[in-house]
Design goal:
4-stranded parallel beta sheet; 9 helices
Length: 391
């Protein structure tokens, strides 16, 4: 089996192959068993302030920690949705906050385009409290922001779909242990004993065959795995003691945010809608120069609508990049060339970050918010000299 210490050689390798990444705290060996796209096309390995798991797979197609063309993002959505044929309805899609919400909405949208989605429902986990009935609540033990909430859909018809789904599609950007998804699936099965199929969707899955078998034994319905890449990894800690991690605030005030999150962008359930015309009209309203570069920035859990705007700019011929702010603190590494820290826009006084922005970007920047008004100390638009759009 081919092995390389140089990650730049990976695109020329056919699976299976191995890549070793040196880290400041040790080394990470990644084995790729199957790939629709090469590992280094999908991600780059970075580092984070977590002694239990000091590495992170920084996606190059997700539009979160790495700026990416919305055309590339849409291609990933299309490829994953194409694998979701022959699903028994009703189908419930659930995306994991915060990183996979945009991915989940994108796959749901492409599923609706490719197969129709009359009896399909999208919802998401969220970190934010609302004065609304909670359907599911789980913890993510390895994460800095642990609690995931899933609310009952607001519309009664969607609530019935939620409760009577025959197929449950759980979407995360990357699956390493599957424990969080297992907990979520079990919590859902406690509500709906009639579920007939469970599908785990991700850009990359690192579940071994043994873990997949264990996952299947935990559930009565068949469990399928859909991804663009499958493999395993092994982290070998070094002998050098890790540096003391800086202190970050990642816990909000747990106060209800109904006054701030007044529009349902997925937290209370959504049907499939084709709204491309709306965003094309919105993009045209900016009247940018035809030769101008554009970057669109989403915020926190708010990704799909900003992506729609970025995709519309691309369709109009603009050279466009998309990415989002995040509450995830990452350490400096070759995967993180630039870090900008600032207070969050959800009035929680949580440290937020945006990574790998080009400080010499020559073009127009648009930051799209679901939160209005912005906190007085949220200075990201000023620092990026950005136009602000509230949706």
């Amino acid at each position: 089996m081919p092995t390389t210490q140089n990650p730049n050689l990976a695109p020329s390798l056919d699976a299976p192959y191995e890549i070793t990444y040196p880290l400041s705290s040790g080394s990470l060996k990644v084995r790729v068993n199957r790939q629709d796209r090469p590992f280094t096309e999908l991600c780059v390995v970075g580092e984070r302030y977590n002694p239990k798991r000091p590495f992170i797979f920084v996606s190059k197609v997700l539009g979160k920690h790495w700026p990416v063309s919305p055309l590339v993002m849409k291609g990933g959505y299309e490829d994953l949705a194409a694998k979701l044929n022959d699903l028994e309805s009703p189908v419930l899609f659930v995306a994991m906050a915060e990183t996979a919400i945009g991915l989940g909405r994108g796959v749901f949208a492409e599923y609706g385009t490719q197969y129709g989605a009359k009896e399909a429902l999208f919802t998401q986990t969220t970190r934010y409290q609302l004065n609304h009935k909670i359907a599911l609540e789980i913890d993510e033990p390895h994460c800095h922001a642990r609690s995931h909430l899933v609310y009952w859909p607001k519309e009664s018809a969607l609530a019935q779909l939620f409760l009577k789904a025959k197929t449950l599609v759980l979407i995360d950007d990357e699956i390493s242990t599957g424990n969080t998804l297992k907990n979520l699936a079990q919590a859902y099965l406690n509500l709906n004993k009639g579920l007939k199929r469970l599908i785990l969707v991700s850009l990359m899955s690192f579940l071994s065959d043994a873990v997949k078998e264990e996952f299947q034994r935990a559930f009565p319905p068949p469990v399928d795995h859909v991804s663009l890449l499958e493999g395993t990894f092994n982290y070998d800690p070094g002998e050098i003691s890790p540096e003391i991690s800086p202190s970050f605030n990642s816990v909000g005030d747990f106060a209800p945010k109904d006054w701030l999150l007044q529009t349902n962008y997925g937290r209370l359930g959504l049907r499939f809608e084709d709204d491309q015309l709306y965003y094309q009209t919105l993009a045209k309203s900016f009247h940018f120069s035809p030769s101008q570069k554009v970057r669109v920035i989403g915020t926190g859990e708010f990704l799909r609508e900003p992506f729609n705007l970025a995709y519309a700019f691309s369709q109009l011929g603009y050279e466009t990049l998309f990415q989002s702010t995040t509450r995830t603190p990452l350490a400096p590494s070759p995967a993180i060339s630039h870090t900008l820290a600032f207070p969050d826009n959800y009035h929680d006084n949580i440290d937020n970050f945006i990574y790998n922005l080009d400080p010499n970007f020559e073009g127009d920047t648009v930051i799209v918010y679901e939160t209005r008004p912005l906190p007085l100390d949220h200075d990201l638009p000023t620092r990026l000299r950005a136009k602000v759009l509230f949706l």
